[in-house]
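Hey, can you fold this one?
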Amino acid sequence: MELEGKIAVVTGVSKGIGLATVQALLNKGMKVAGWGRNAPELQDKNFHFFACDVRYPESVQRAFDQTITQLGIHVSVLVNNAGLGITGKMDEMSVEDWQTMFDTNVNGLFYCSRLVLPSMKEVGEGHIINISSIAGTTGIEQMSGYCGSKHAVRGISHSLYKEVRDYGIKVTCIYPGSVKTNFFDNIDGVTVSDNMMRPEDIASTILHVLESHLNYHHVDIEVRPLIPKGKRQK
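Sure. Predicted structure:
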């Protein structure tokens, strides 16, 4: 897809992968709508922040309406990045924490995607990028809720791409390993380090996927740090 001058929506833009993706898309000449609960420290004539909590359909609808009013009616790219993880054993986790993960990671993806698809179908072009996790391909002890939500992202992505591929719309699911972000602030036993991937690494993968030939479709991409524990000493 040719990106210059087109409109992209990125969720969860305050920091980390979302912010790095916004910056990468701006560098390609896109107009970017950032949806999130908190605005990033970013000033660019082509970046527009719209307050949005993806857990709530009315909040997503409001952000979408503001986006098409200010930027244009056709969103070419949607990056469903907003997400969070809460650890805990299933019999000890609160119902509120469980619902927060699924409302954000799963329902939010649905609320956002359903709004951009009609114009993508009409134009015959579009790309939805869903950020899952390696937790979406395996199970992790004390992360059943997070793994379950990210497995759901995988299933939704696989189903959706088959629904929309004949309209010229791509759906790609990315499964990152550990990335140096604030995700781990509330994850016990994990220390953020330079051995993790950088947010801009994930953003570069997103760009590669978006700029691929129109008949070349990346369905699943798993990325991991090469040496997550650092180089072995000789």
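The longest helix spans residues 95-123. Let me know if you want another pass with a different chain boundary.
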